[in-house]
Amino acid sequence: MAARSTRDVAYTARLTGLEAWWKRLLDVQRPYRNYLRTLQPGRFLEVGCGLGRNLLNARDFAAGLGIDHNPTSVEVARSRGLAALTTDEFHRSPLAVQGSFDSLLLSHVLEHLAPDEALSLLRTYLPFVREAGQVIIVTPQEAGYRSDPTHVTFVDFEASARLLTATGVALARQESFPFPRWVGRFFTYNEFVTVGQVGQPR
Prior knowledge:
Blueprint: H1 9-17, H2 21-26, H3 30-38, E1 43-47, H4 53-58, E2 63-68, H5 71-79, E3 84-86, H6 87-92, E4 101-107, H7 115-125, E5 129-140, H8 142-146, H9 157-166, E6 170-177, E7 191-197
Parallel strand pairs: 1-2, 1-4, 2-3, 4-5
Antiparallel strand pairs: 5-7, 6-7
């Protein structure tokens, strides 16, 4: 059964199904793991952590806490020994302290939201990032966007920059990863990466 929402059990099953054995054998996550290291996320809060791929990638060099609105995905992440909470659990927990994280990571999240929802999400979680901390936004390019029926908004460099501007976050850098921008038209895993720097606490 196809997932109709990222909250569905079917969506967790879809993500799990993408974790093919040959991907683990070839360590296809290595370039993404190394790239995440260069971003120096420090103690980071990942909103929309899914099964915990980024938490796994970062655990040798950063301390990540993942949150997600899909409880089934959170259960999978926890079963892998990762720090993960549902969004409701996070807001009730002692970890929900303003200014306590070095970075906010939104990886493959905003494309699932309408623009006003994306703005609301960013405004909700920005207060948890310290002054001079980072906001890291990762979204799929064309081929990746087409690969998931739950995607509703194509979030390119311009859209990510607008979100940062609307929330008072300074744009620091934008890159196409792992290949040049044009590759994203046919390579599913090419990504827009936008990094912003947080100014005064809101």
